[in-house]
Every structure is written in C-alpha cells, then in structure tokens.
C-alpha cells in the first residue's frame, strides 16, 4: 500500500487515487503512448551533520562522490525512491519531504536525459552522524564535507545541483535547474 497523503483527515493510497481517477482515457491515435519518450527519474537527499556539512556517498561503481539516493523503479515516485535508497544506502528512515531542486539533465553517452529531484534530508544529530555507516555493498564509504571541499570530488553538474539545493535551503523555496544551473 503506497500512502500518498491525507485528504479530509483520512489516509489516501495510490490505489484509491487511481480508482477515483476513473477509466484511463483512450488513445486518440492508437500506439502513440508506446512511442512517447521515457525519462530517467531519480531522487536524492541533502543530509547535513550538526556542522552543516553535506553527506556524500562514495560509490564503488564510479569515480565521483554522490548524495544519498538513486533512480526510481518503474511505478515509484522520486520521493519514494529517495526514501528507499536512503534506507538501503545508510540504514536510516528519515522524514524526507521538502523539495529543494528539480533538475533536468541532458542525455550523455549511454544515459538518456532525466529529471533529478533533491529533497531535504534534514540535519542529523551528532550521535547519528558519528555512527553512520554504509549499509549497501555498492558503497565504499560515506563522507561529510563542506561544499567547497566536495566540489573537486563531484561531477560539475552534481556540484551545481548541490549548490542549488543549498541555495534553496537558504531562500526557502525550491529551485528549477537545467544541468545543475538554476533558471
């Protein structure tokens, strides 16, 4: 059961929302839905320690640091993917909710274009930060870093995306970006 929210004081599931939508509309031109482009979608979290440093994961499958999170599975929302990946990667069930960044990234090499979401993962207390360990075999480690110290260890687009997320924290509204550049 996927809980989407609360309506009129009652929990609402995805199944209930789909039922309320009614029958799906028919294709005006048969086969068009199958020809529509598909985009990669991912959700990540900006998680900080008490000093305000950002949590980065050290993947074993690529040479750059990343933030906790990952690609959404089929039928999974970016927020659900973010929460799932945080549980898988660092073993925490954080109350991730607030959207910080929506970033479109272009196709690059074998990777199709995509939409990346960054959510506010909050600030861990000192005990949580010190005890944190990777809980996913794909990760070689975790690092809390000040933004400026992290930049040389990030892909340029990720550095811009993280900066946009930090800016969104400061100015209290989400940012839309294209390839990490706020618009």
UniProtKB/TrEMBL annotation:
<dbReference type="Pfam" id="PF00293">
    <property type="entry name" value="NUDIX"/>
</dbReference>
<keyword id="KW-0378">Hydrolase</keyword>
<dbReference type="InterPro" id="IPR015797">
    <property type="entry name" value="NUDIX_hydrolase-like_dom_sf"/>
</dbReference>
<protein>
    <submittedName>
        <fullName>ADP-ribose pyrophosphatase YjhB, NUDIX family</fullName>
    </submittedName>
</protein>
<dbReference type="InterPro" id="IPR000086">
    <property type="entry name" value="NUDIX_hydrolase_dom"/>
</dbReference>
<keyword id="KW-0460">Magnesium</keyword>
<dbReference type="InterPro" id="IPR020084">
    <property type="entry name" value="NUDIX_hydrolase_CS"/>
</dbReference>
<feature type="domain" description="Nudix hydrolase">
    <location>
        <begin position="37"/>
        <end position="167"/>
    </location>
</feature>
<dbReference type="GO" id="GO:0016787">
    <property type="term" value="F:hydrolase activity"/>
</dbReference>
